[in-house]
Amino acid sequence: MNRLMLTASIAELKALRHTPAGLPAQDLVLEHASEVEEAGQTRQVKATIRAVAFGAVAERMRKQVVGSSWRFVGFVTNQRVGKGLVLHVQEFQPVSTDSSGAHHGRT
Hints:
Layout: E1 4-13, E2 17-18, E3 24-38, E4 41-54, H1 55-61, E5 69-78, E6 85-94
Parallel strand pairs: 4-6
Antiparallel strand pairs: 1-3, 1-5, 2-3, 3-4, 5-6
């Protein structure tokens, strides 16, 4: 199964583009920061992730504010150009700051 759920803030929104088939596509960069338990120790985790949304999700995404925090759900695949992975966002919803203060940004 290839499904990823990630809480992250929008670090960068590129200009909305369209695929050759005319489908809206929104490229963005996400930033994640949290604390996790690993081998009995607390670890600070930070990640910058490239992402893309298509269709109606892209239309909604382009209206969001850089710095706002969301829960993103989708799947990962290889980037078409370059190395690494890209998250294909299939849905997203706002998140609020949790009691640990791990999530920041406007929703």
